[in-house]
Amino acid sequence: MNSALCPLCRKNNNCGNLKQPASSSEKLDCWCLHESIPSAALEALPPEQRGKSCICQSCAKAFTLSNSTSTSNTPASDQLAFPVGQTSSS
């Protein structure tokens, strides 16, 4: 499984936590730290793919639009495949 790909659409998920910092003092940042991921998007993932790679922003927005009446969102930082400060090589 490629952790740089969205498990829903298989396109680049642009996870900022997967990038290699330019220096040891550079903080990683990702779009998902500033948004909520709809619970339905996480539930759409097969159990074996949960926590392995991040959902892309396009899929998160698509679920947000399709579930706009639902108030059940999960903070994106709770679903990160790689918690802040940790990368796939850590």
Helix fraction bin: 10-25%
**Low-pLDDT residue intervals, each spanning 5 or more residues:** 70-80, 82-90
Q: Total number of β-strand segments? A: 2
Main sheet specs? 2 strands, antiparallel
Number of separate domains: 1
Which structural class do you get from the secondary structure elements? alpha+beta
> Into which percentage range does the β-strand content fall?
5-15%
- Overall mean pLDDT: 74
Strand order of the largest sheet: 1-2
How much is the radius of gyration in Å? 13 Å
Dominant shape = globular
How far apart are the first and last residues' alpha carbons, in Å?
17 Å
**Total number of helical segments?**
2
Order of helices and strands: EHHE
Q: What report would you give on this structure?
A:
- The protein is 17% helix and 7% strand.
- The C terminus is likely disordered.
- With 90 residues, the chain is α+β, with helices and mostly antiparallel strands.
- It has one domain.
- Strands 1-2 form a two-stranded antiparallel ribbon.
What is the secondary structure topology, with strand pairs?
Layout: E1 36-38, H1 39-43, H2 57-66, E2 73-75
Antiparallel strand pairs: 1-2
Descriptive tags:
90 residues; two-stranded antiparallel ribbon; single chain; alpha+beta
Care to give the gist of this entry?
By secondary structure, the protein is of the alpha+beta class. Helix content is 17%, strand content 7%.
